[in-house]
Amino acid sequence: MNFVFLSPSFPANYYLFCAALKKEGVNVLGIGEPSFGELRTELRESLAWYCQVGDLRDRAQVGGAMRFLSGRFGTIDRIDSLNEYWLETEAQLRTEFGISGIQAADVAGVRRKSLMKKVFALAGIPHARGRLVSDAGQAHELAGELNFPIVVKPDDGMGAEFTYRLNSPPDLDRFLDGKPNRDFIMEEFIDGGIVTFDGLAGPDGGIVFCTSHVYGQGVMEAVLADMHISYYSLREIPPDIMAAGQKLVKGFNVRERFFHFEFFRRPDGTLCALEVNIRPPGGMTMDMFNYACDIDMYAVWAGMMARGAVRLEYSRKYYCGYAGRKNRLSYAYSHDEVLNRLGGLIIHHEGLPPILARAMGDIGYLMRAGARGEVENAVNFIQELK
């Protein structure tokens, strides 16, 4: 089997997908921007071939690399990056080279928030009211229907990119004056915390693995305020999240892919769908899957790619939490004090690259425990400010 992995060096932990594919006997063929010598040793040893391109956004360069690889190794069976940024590129390459998976004609349905709302509606899942706006007149008319505060964000965007909470008509006017030239969707502001349904779907759409996370602060709020973020996994998935998540896996026809569905949990306890992502959740969450259950989801995914349907026996043994810290903030306890005080609760910590730091922090800590309170107390200790 020939598997092309786009941008295998980013995020840093994704080399583990390539290493797991190689263990399954797959020819892993990389296409990326760094030179081969810049790749970490474990990644270089996992690749059967690597093509460096000047810019992964240049379709001509990437298409040329694909043609070279198919000429040298034969039919390309799969292509992926497991990264939302390259989702559209992958889909177009699959269509061009006759590779199975999400095709160019399908990608808008899992990228555009306006189309996601249609699936939410068909599945009977409550979601924020809103629609696309193309000019100031439409924007003010819809703002009148929704009432302030409102949220505006790109219809096809990632994370909290160009996402704003607007509290008044003057806020809306300022946004419109500087709005980038792209499609924006305007929604009612939903008061609530973020909860997720995350996992991996098999070739038949059945759920191979799933879990749920509770966020201490949403990514949009963290980015806009330049604050730190935290979240933790649950040992038991609430029934309403499980039911909604199963409907969305079916509604978006998720097959052979990871998924990351976000919901608001309103103060009254009800759920409101936010958005879907047909890729692994970001940051260190893949590693949180593994630490929470003592499993290896990199290997599970690679086995599915190589051999088709897989069966995974697992239990959620621990609550696993993430706490980020930002260099601009003054914390009550130093890094060494965190490690000394929390001891065995901390299972991993690392500095994060600048491209992730705005949302996830300059350094991230992972911790796990059998009781939720231990993880919550650890997060509070790590993020306590002077």
Describe this protein's structure.
With 386 residues, the protein is of the alpha+beta class. The chain has three domains: 108 residues, Rossmann fold, CATH 3.40.50.20; 60 residues, Dna Ligase, domain 1 (2-Layer Sandwich); 191 residues, D-amino Acid Aminotransferase, Chain A, domain 1 (2-Layer Sandwich), CATH 3.30.470. 36% of the residues lie in helices and 24% in strands. It has 14 helices and 17 strands. The strands form four sheets. The protein has a five-stranded antiparallel beta sheet, sandwiched between helices. Strands 3-2-1-4 form a four-stranded parallel beta sheet, sandwiched between helices. Strand 1, helix 1 and strand 2 form a beta-alpha-beta unit. Helix 1 packs across helix 11, helix 5 packs across helix 9 and helix 6 packs antiparallel against helix 7. It is globular and about 60 Å long. The termini are far apart. The mean pLDDT is 94.
Q: Which structural category do the helix and sheet elements fall into? A: alpha+beta
N- to C-terminal separation? Answer: 54 Å
Number of domains: 3
What portion of the residues fall into strands of 2 or more residues? Answer: 15-25%
Question: Would you count the extended β strands for me?
Answer: 17
Tell me the number of helical segments per DSSP (H or I, 4 or more residues long): 14
What is the second-level CATH architecture of the largest domain?
2-Layer Sandwich
CATH topology of the largest domain: D-amino Acid Aminotransferase, Chain A, domain 1
CATH top level label of the largest domain: Alpha Beta
